[in-house]
Task: structure prediction
Amino acid sequence: MTKMQIYAFDMNCVGHINHGMWTHPRDASLRYTDLDYWTDLARTAERGMLDGIFLADIVGVYDVYKGSPATTIETAAQIPVNDPVIPISAMAYVTKHLGFGVTVNTTYEPPFLLARRMSTLDHLTRGRIGWNIVTGYLDSAARSMGFERLPEHDARYDAAEEYMEILYKLWEGSWDDDAVLKDKERGIFADPSKVRAVRHGGRHYRMEGIHLSEPSPQRTPLLFQAGASARGQDFAARHAECVFIASAAPQAAQPIVGGLRARAAEFGRGADALRILNLMTVVVGRTEKEARDKLEEYRRHASVEASLAHYSSSIGIDLSRYGLDEPILQTSTNANQSALAAITKQAAKPVTPREIIDQMVLGSRMKPVVGSPEQVADHMQEWVEKGGVDGFNLARTVAPESLRDFVDLVIPVLQERGLFKTEYEEGPLRRKLFGGRDGRLPATHPAAAFRA
Result:
């Protein structure tokens, strides 16, 4: 069996996915503004030989619930939230192999500046940076960025396709591989004949300019994507290398995984072009009883209100306006279409707020995996074998306790079973995950068409 890939899923904020955990006496996430907090996290992840730390981000606030951001501000539900890019250089400095995935929104970030930022990170991390491509789903973000409202869902992806073309031109085509000479004797740093301006004139973007960074180890960073709508999955199959999904069970993941791989093959990339990782929360103890006791301890700190506020903005529906047993019948909004479909179109029957709350074990709609190290390893192995996933994105509960517990208790069991690596591969992040010699995108990827 191919060894699974595992990322620590986090965010530069107090409360991320499992809301309310910051109130636990052993939780340290109030230190999120302290650089030592992040470097310690990176060292722990590399000690466990995790593939990387994946930092989510959101631009805007969750203000749909009760028509106000008050609940999210009061409960620290992803606000305050700092820039996810800033801590990465420090985390890379204290590690050697750990990869980093960072979320940046295409709707609000000019492609020319993003290209330079990612190239800079690829240089500073020595080829260990990845970019999570998102288009956003919050009207509050659109208003904050000067838009009247959020562009329509599919229009955001249409613009993102053009955005990617510009980035590929900059990363792959603006500088030749042998453009940089660094010739001190002649005083020639680079050959101007091997550096060219990128020109683009499209429906959504116009630009002309030379990429400001010399070629970095990977040129194009490792590409992550988490869109779960039909349009998002199509985008992922065309562009992404790692895809995050959030299925509740292996049987539910299997058709999603199969569909993504088949679509990637249709684009000429091959079914093995994607690494698909499922979101998972783990509560582990040395014994099952210890894990169950820990879960009950954690549950006393979970915030249902914060989770409802987060989920309301995710689906674009104010859940406070529904009675506890009133079915949610609205099937379309301009927010997260897959999250809404999960409780409407894809549900056996329309879901009620009470049923949503019943699933909120630790302040999120994702039920945790709870047990001994062997039981957790069994569950992860089942996901790989029956769900077809390549690995996992581990959401934090009590930080940094949850990651330390996983590294100290679960990783050794996975390694003993031959399910997880016992040493890192050398080289850039892409090479670590996919093999190859230079860490560059393969010729089958659409970016390759823009190489000089």
